[in-house]
Amino acid sequence: MNYKKLGKILGKIMILEGILMLAPLAVCFVYRESFKHILAFAVPIAALVLIGILLQLSKPQRNTLYQKEGFALTAMVWIVMALFGAIPFVINGEIPNYVDACFEIMSGFTTTGASVVTDITKLSHSSLFWRSFSHWIGGMGILVFVLIFIPESNEGSSMHLLRAESPGPQVGKIVSKMKVTTRILYLIYLGLTVLEVVVLMLDRPIPGYENEQFFFSLLTAFGCAGTGGFGFLPGSMEMFHPFSQYAMSIFLILFGCNFSLYYLLLIGKVRQVLKSEEFRAYFLIVGAAVAFVFISLVGRFEAFPQTYTTEEAFRHSLFQVSSLITTAGFTTTDYNVWPMLATSSLIVVMFFGAMAGSTAGGIKLSRIVIAVKGTYINVRKLINPRYVPKAKFEDKGLEEKTINDVFAFITLYFFILIAVIFLLAFDPVNGEVVTIVSDAGTYTVKHGFFSNFSATLACISNVGPAFEAVGPYASYVGYSVFSKIILTLTMMLGRLEILPVLILFSPKTWKKV
């Protein structure tokens, strides 16, 4: 294990996190917050920069990283980012419990959006900014940004880091040079974020928050870009006007697309984009899910409290499907009390997630498509042992190794899902009655299996809000310290797609060969 090289890159990440924290520190001064709030960011900034500089003093004998080192480093970076990123909430006293603060910021960096905050109105502007900004930082991946600065001679090391942090079964460069690839990805990411801010500024301000329009537009764009779901107003996005809700829906769907497709569009290869199997599957599933939810709401096959006009039913259907399939978790209404057809559709898209190479979580549609093809091949082989598969994915031959890797990932995904649900069953919160106040009225739910199941699914798929006691108008605050630590690790497992975390904690990783 190349400890000195790992320390050197980790030190760069820590310095970068300190630099990024200057943004919420600037917000403290803009909104004239107290000295305690300024200190909340100044202290971790100083600590991060100091430790980062000390780690730069090491001189590794080998500049390259092997695959296991790249995967272990990736998981290590995300843990360090969360441990230091939680400090501001503890110092300013807005989330005084350190475990809760780690849960909150890990939820931010992993673009999950699950929260332990019960009254969002009590958070300062700097805390609101740091929560949402963490979505934007984690959306594309902090290591992807650092790859811009890794020397070209370390192309192999760069690829290991990219594969460890980027979502999807097949990760590669979109151009010959890794630096150029990462720059293109970040320019597309930044461009779409700025465009969304501009579009949201075209809408009328929210009544009572006329002076906050730019600030709210910025936080919304951070959340949509990273497909994270931290709300900053009561009811998440409920108070926004229909124009903004439609705009958010569209941008969420755009951020759920593979960013490589935007590069193809920029160089004029529109046909190649339209031929993408995952692209077509993505919009087919979005369209089908919106239709199922819409029919369920307007048909009223089951009794539920809300009464929507046809336009409202379509808007909420589009918003919630786009929010949950991209694993953002923003809400415009209380889907917790929707009919079974609607909630079932939402649960399915939470499992699926959006496209590989996007900022979304979930299993990813590329894996779903490959798994369907792999299952078909296996069934054909059972019927006819002489059958020679000629399956393709995205116009490329589908290798048996890729199919096996996809099946292995899905197996691990469900194994972790079941294991975490089992561990949450020991939590004392089970059986407690939770009161929910939403646009559907005031009602009570019992914290039970479905709450734990949906909470686990929401964390491993990086969705955030779940159902029942952890639904869109509730929080995760009721869970014990043990459960919060488990769910925090589950969020990281979901964001890094399991393997980097398993490699980090495997004893064999650290043994001398």
Task: State the secondary-structure class.
Answer: mainly alpha
> Would you report the number of β strands?
4
The Rg value, from CA coordinates, equals 22 Å
Helical residues, percent: 55-70%
Q: In total, how many domains does the architecture comprise? A: 2
Task: Let me know the largest β-sheet.
Answer: 2 strands, antiparallel
Instruction: Please mark out the parts with pLDDT under 50 across 5 or more consecutive residues, or reply none.
Output: none
Describe the structure.
The protein has 513 residues and is mostly helical. The protein has two domains: 1-166, no CATH class; 170-418, no CATH class. The chain is 60% helix and 3% strand. The chain contains 22 helices and four strands. The chain has helices spanning 3-20, 22-30, 35-55, 67-85, 87-91, 98-109, 125-140, 142-146, 155-165, 178-201, 213-225, 242-255, 259-266, 270-274, 277-299, 310-325, 340-352, 365-383, 400-424, 449-460, 481-495, 499-504, and strands at 392-393, 396-397, 433-438, 441-446. It has a two-stranded antiparallel ribbon with strand order 1-2. A two-stranded antiparallel ribbon has the order 3-4. Helix 7 runs parallel beside helix 11. The radius of gyration is 22 Å and the shape is globular.
